[in-house]
């Protein structure tokens, strides 16, 4: 099985875009989170792939997400997964539900990890971690000034 | 799951009762410095052959789980060379924690289908001594998605933690109920020779053990260990002819793989164990209340609570109260993990759930001494892994259950 070299164990893993995900990572550099919309069955998916996960169609359109989401579940990491994340701990990993439906894994910025709660409203922040890679993270929104987004019922 | 019941009705193909476990062996477990992964595997395999009363020449098949600390992709092949075997059936399996049960399911099918006559199942790893805990955690994360999950620093524990968190929100499961799972496992381990952790703990000890990833404290999490286990599986006919131990029959098998990424898990609180156990029960022609003793994958305390529900031992959402009422220990409705489980006996990675098999086999043989579940005839082991991505159930029984 794959074994990482000890000298690399302090580096945080960064995505290597592949043929499926190139457009996704390119758009994040430009500050947009792309979703794949199926022209045949209207399924909306994150995790970019060559076929619709629901109907198998290849007719997938990329459309930017609104960037608004709700905390579906979360966990505050105190014991990091190896040396690379030790200095970041404690940090909150989020399972967010995008307003468009799909869920995705992200992390919480712009607040204390202990403030994260179920149903909390969030908006996208594209965090430029290298010249090539921006990670989609989420930050709390003030509901009263949340622009086009209405507060949602807890899911 | 009426479709599954229909599938195994009447003359449908089945592996029910066609094969039996005739040998079970363990290596030294816990913290075992100075022994390679293959040496641990060989120690367990020798113990299993000796338990069965057969020699290496009786083995024509080898199934193994992959190892994190050993570099061999073809671990089953490397092990065969190391142990002096040249099998005519072999494979190395990797579906995370579920691998243990899948090895029994596949062995039963391979023997029933004529691919092999007598299969040695072996799992071994050295996460504590061979890798160190830091590297073990990183190595386990390396196999997860490197684009959509790992850049956010998501340990394997975190995916399980998010399901437990959601279970607490939806059903009111409490931290104290989670802690009770750990306390019971520690009590079980205290009765098991060779268990890694035997110091008694209380609910307060668990709650005060420090956060790992909320809602899990250190003592809500399983151990990081070294160790191996091995088994000999053969046809039911051959079991009586060649084995010296009381055969334990494989009665039913089921598996289910609902997602790879935690964000595609259909529900955070109901798992593929519903489908995998439904398949296994249908094939074994029994249901949850019939099971006398169980091995329930316990990588985290909340995992046990969710799986007890999904295996049908209690209604959905009731797992916390079920545990609190003493249902999973001696004298309860379904004694589980009577060896102490991954939480207190040992957790060397993919071999971890083989110890659940070892314990259930010994329970069905009636040789567990002070921790024996009296009259145990039907046993179940559920193995799972990767944030509930992989689920596999195996039902075992004595000759009386055939």
Walkthrough of the structure:
The complex is a heterodimer of chains A (155) and B (402). Chain A has one helix at residues 22-29; strands spanning 34-38, 44-45, 60-64, 68-77, 91-98, 103-107, 121-128, 134-140. Chain A is globular. Chain A has one helix and eight strands, in the order H-E-E-E-E-E-E-E-E. Chain A folds into two domains: 18-64, no CATH class; 66-155, Beta Barrel (OB fold (Dihydrolipoamide Acetyltransferase, E2P)), CATH 2.40.50. The longest helix of chain A has 8 residues, at 22-29. Chain B has 402 residues and is of the alpha/beta class. Chain B has a single domain (2-131, 223-401), classed as Thiolase/Chalcone synthase (Peroxisomal Thiolase, Chain A, domain 1, 3-Layer(aba) Sandwich), CATH 3.40.47.10. Chain B has 15 helices and eleven strands. Chain B has helices at 2-7, 37-52, 75-83, 99-112, 127-131, 133-142, 156-171, 175-189, 203-207, 236-242, 273-284, 301-310, 319-324, 341-345, 352-365, and strands at residues 19-26, 61-65, 89-93, 118-126, 211-213, 216-217, 226-235, 248-257, 293-296, 378-385, 390-397. In chain B, a hairpin with a 4-residue loop joins strand 10 and strand 11. In chain B, helix 2 (37-52) packs across helix 3 and helix 8 packs across helix 12 (301-310).
- The secondary-structure class of chain A comes to mainly beta
Major β-sheet profile of chain B: 9 strands, mixed
- In the CATH hierarchy, the third-tier topology of the largest domain in chain A is known as OB fold (Dihydrolipoamide Acetyltransferase, E2P)
Number of strands of chain A: 8
Oligomeric form: heterodimer
Order of helices and strands of chain B: HEHEHEHEHHHHHEEEHEHEHHHHEE
Number of domains of chain B: 1
Produce a short descriptive summary:
The complex is a heterodimer of chains A (155) and B (402). Chain A is mostly beta strands and 155 residues long.
Secondary structure blueprint with pairings:
The complex is a heterodimer of chains A (155) and B (402).
Chain A: H1 22-29, E1 34-38, E2 44-45, E3 60-64, E4 68-77, E5 91-98, E6 103-107, E7 121-128, E8 134-140
Antiparallel strand pairs in A: 1-2, 1-3, 4-5, 4-7, 5-6, 7-8
Chain B: H1 2-7, E1 19-26, H2 37-52, E2 61-65, H3 75-83, E3 89-93, H4 99-112, E4 118-126, H5 127-131, H6 133-142, H7 156-171, H8 175-189, H9 203-207, E5 211-213, E6 216-217, E7 226-235, H10 236-242, E8 248-257, H11 273-284, E9 293-296, H12 301-310, H13 319-324, H14 341-345, H15 352-365, E10 378-385, E11 390-397
Parallel strand pairs in B: 2-3, 2-4, 9-10
Antiparallel strand pairs in B: 1-7, 1-8, 4-7, 5-6, 8-11, 10-11
């Amino acid at each position: 099985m794959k074994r990482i070299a000890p000298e690399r164990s302090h580096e945080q893993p960064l995505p290597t875009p592949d043929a499926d995900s190139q457009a996704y990572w390119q758009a994040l550099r430009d500050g947009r989170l792309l979703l794949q919309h199926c022209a045949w069955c209207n399924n909306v998916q994150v995790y970019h792939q060559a076929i619709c996960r629901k109907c198998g169609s290849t007719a997938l359109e990329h459309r930017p997400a609104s960037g608004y989401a709700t905390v579906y579940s979360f966990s505050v990491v105190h014991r990091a997964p190896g040396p690379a994340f030790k200095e970041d701990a404690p940090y909150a990993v989020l399972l967010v539900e995008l307003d468009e439906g799909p869920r995705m894994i992200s992390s919480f910025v712009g607040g204390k990890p202990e403030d994260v709660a179920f149903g909390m409203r969030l908006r996208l922040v594209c965090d430029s971690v290298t010249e090539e890679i921006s990670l989609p993270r989420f930050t709390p929104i003030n509901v009263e000034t949340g622009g086009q987004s209405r507060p949602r019922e807890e899911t | 799951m009426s479709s599954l019941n229909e599938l195994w009705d009447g003359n449908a193909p089945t592996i029910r009762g066609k094969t039996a476990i005739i040998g079970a062996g363990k290596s030294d477990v816990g913290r075992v410095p100075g022994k390679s992964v293959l040496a641990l595997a060989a120690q367990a395999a020798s113990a299993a052959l000796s338990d069965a009363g057969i020699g290496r020449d009786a083995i024509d098949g080898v199934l193994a789980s992959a190892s994190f600390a050993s570099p061999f992709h073809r671990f089953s092949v490397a092990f065969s060379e190391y142990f002096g075997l040249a099998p005519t059936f072999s494979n190395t399996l990797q579906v995370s924690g579920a691998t243990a049960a899948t090895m029994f399911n596949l062995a039963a099918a391979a023997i029933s289908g004529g691919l092999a006559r007598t299969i040695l199942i072996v799992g071994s790893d050295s996460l504590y001594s061979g890798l160190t805990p830091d590297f073990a955690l990183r190595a386990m994360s390396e196999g997860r998605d490197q684009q959509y999950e790992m850049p956010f620093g998501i340990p394997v524990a975190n995916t399980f933690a998010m399901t437990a968190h959601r279970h607490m929100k939806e059903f009111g499961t409490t931290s104290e109920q989670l802690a009770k799972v750990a306390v019971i496992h520690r009590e079980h381990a205290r009765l098991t020779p060779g268990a890694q952790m035997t110091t008694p703990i209380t609910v307060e000890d668990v709650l005060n053990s420090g956060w790992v990833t909320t809602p899990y404290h250190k003592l809500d999490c399983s151990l990081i260990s070294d160790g191996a286990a091995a088994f000999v599986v053969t046809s039911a006919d051959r079991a009586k002819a060649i084995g010296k131990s009381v055969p334990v029959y494989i009665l039913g098998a089921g598996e289910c793989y609902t997602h790879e990424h935690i964000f595609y898990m259909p529900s955070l609180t109901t798992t593929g164990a519903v489908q995998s156990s439904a398949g296994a029960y249908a094939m074994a022609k029994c249901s949850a209340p019939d099971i006398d003793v169980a091995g329930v994958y316990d990588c985290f305390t909340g995992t046990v609570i969710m799986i007890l529900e999904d295996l049908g031992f209690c209604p959905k959402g009731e797992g916390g109260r079920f545990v609190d009422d003493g249902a999973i220990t001696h004298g309860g409705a379904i004694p589980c993990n009577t060896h102490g489980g991954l939480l207190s006996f040992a957790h060397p990675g993919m071999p971890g759930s083989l110890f659940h098999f070892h314990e259930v086999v010994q329970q069905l043989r009636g040789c567990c001494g002070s921790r024996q579940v009296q009259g145990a005839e039907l046993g179940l082991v559920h193995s799972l892994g990767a944030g509930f991505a992989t689920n596999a159930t195996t039902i075992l029984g004595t000759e009386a259950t055939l």
